[in-house]
Amino acid sequence: MTDKIYNVLFLCTGNSARSVIAEALMNREGRGRFKAFSAGSMPTGRVNPHTRPIVESLGFDFGDFRSKSWEEFAQPGAPVLDFIFTVCDNAAGEVCPVWPGQPMTAHWGVPDPAAVEGSEAEIGAAFSETARLLGNRIRLFLNLPLDKLDRMSLQARLRQIGEAAHETNPAQ
Length: 172
Description:
Elements: E1 6-12, H1 18-29, E2 34-40, H2 52-57, E3 83-86, H3 89-92, E4 104-107, H4 120-142, H5 151-163
Parallel strand pairs: 1-2, 1-3, 3-4
C-alpha cells in the first residue's frame, strides 16, 4: 500500500450543492488517503444552505466550504489532481480547463437537489438522497485497489461507478 494522498476534484456547474456534498463525503470517508476539493464552471458564489446539515453531520464546519471556480484548480500552484469527477450533467458536457498532470476523469452525475421545490422536508429529502447516491459512489471508489489497477482498467472502473448510482449496497 502506498502512502500517497490522492487529490480529488468534484465539479458541478454552480458548486453550491452536489459537488460540495461530494467534497465533504470524500474528505470524511477517505481521510488519510484522499484530499477532496470542489469547484464549478459557473459558481453561484454561495453554498446552498440545505447542504449545511449534511456537511455538519460529517463533522465539518459549514463555513469552511465555499462556491468557487474550477479555474482555481488549473492555475500554477494549485493542487495536482489525481481524479476529477463531474457530478452534474451540465458540467460533464462543458469544455474543461486543461488540468496539469493528466488526472483520471469520470462522470458521476446525480439529480440536482437544489432544483427541488416543495416543503422543507421534501427539499431535505432530496439533499439526503443526493448524499446517499454520492456516498455509494465514493465508497465504491475507495474500495478500488488503486495501486494494482493499470490506467485503462482504472478508467473503466471509474465509469462503471458512475453508472452504479442506485446501488443500495456499495460493497457488492
